[in-house]
Amino acid sequence: MHVTNAVFPSMEQASAFFGSPENGPFVMVNLLKFKDTAEYADGSDADLSGAEAYARYGKAVQSCLASVGGRQVYAGPVTGLMIGEVEELWDMVALAEYPSLSAMQAMIASAEYQAIEHHRKAGLTGQLNIRTSPIGR
Prior knowledge:
4 helices, four-stranded antiparallel sheet, alpha+beta
């Protein structure tokens, strides 16, 4: 299995993801890998770690999620691996629940989200986003 972390989806990935059929609520599994040091485009906050920059995003994104009917389900550090093998573990796992694809898309396009997204970019070296659906749907 080949794994590639990325900060942003390619145009093809975004089109395929948001172009898939709308089928109700889902939980996004976010596997996060942080930069050692935050990298803001304007050079500010060079004393922050990537995890600290991402924590700014994590705190602020709560209201963005709520504004579209979503919520954070869980967030916590990765502390070990029991089964399988990867070259390097992710630093954190976060689960976010969305009522629909269109709700997630609306959140990402909102001015409120756009205003905080730079913290995410400053803190992440890469991530995997995995969409999951409830069993039985």
